[in-house]
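Contributing new records

If you add data, match the layout below exactly. Sequence lines come first and carry their own label; structure lines follow with theirs. Keep one chain per record. Anything else will be rejected by the validation script.
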Amino acid sequence: MSSPVIHLGLRDWDHLVPLASGLVDVAGFTVRVDSRDVTPDVLAEPGLDGGETSFSRYVQARAAGDDRLVGLPAFIMRGFRHRCVLVRADSPVRTLAQLAGARIGLTGWPDSGNTWTRALLRGAGVDLTGVEWRVGPLTAGESGKDRLGGGPLPSNVSVLAEGDSLEEELAAGRLDAVLTPFMPAELFTSASRFRHLLDDHPAAERAYWETTGFVPGIHLVTLKKETVEAHPTLPAALLAALERSKLRWVARRRLLTDTTPWLLRELTESARVFGDDWMPYGTDPNAEMTRAFCEELYAQGIWPEPIDPRVVFPDPALATAR
């Protein structure tokens, strides 16, 4: 008897390659991974059983009592946000606190990554209501993304005009900074008009880790409720497979380090700072991060009332990924 086929829409994160290629299997199931350039709207695609989902949008849905998606505590996009603040190369601004009262562009108002980055500004004493926020694409022509979240925007948030882009607004001096999870292509050139706000963002990120004990989660894997109801063992089986895929990727990456000039140094330093796993899967090791994120959604006015973090991952079977 053939096993049920599960279709997932995921970006091609390298730690998912063992799962997507079949080197790692999901016990009792055949998983087909559809590689995506942008985060899919899982509920809008009948052909998907699950896929990559914004943590922010998922938490807000659960807070509203919408349980059509079942989240797995597997944050397949995860990273510090200090690096995500860009300014012009000639900007005198060097600290987060100096962005008080600034004109700041960002790629999506309710986005998970931008929520974490605004949390850094709050922590630096910046009054978010005193910032002039502009929402739009990083580069001209970007599409396929919900940037506003469907809810009412605060009075200090506006949307870029059609055809405008954050990078050109920043270059022209009409913005003082931009928050973006992905870097503009020219940042990787010697003639870039932009730079990171923080001269040593790794040091700031290490300090954040020492204070919080977590690396912020941005996207997670979700399954449709009807898929889980039809296959109750799938969530735990898929979570375990995602864990094995990640561990295989880590082992291979540590062996095959000659893919970038200084990858070995990065890997050894990361192991010394974070231990064996800086991106743990499971509800328990992500409890503090989940709680902090729920608090930020409310504190920033993204969600109108406090969120009980227990509504995010209610399945006790997902406490750990092993």
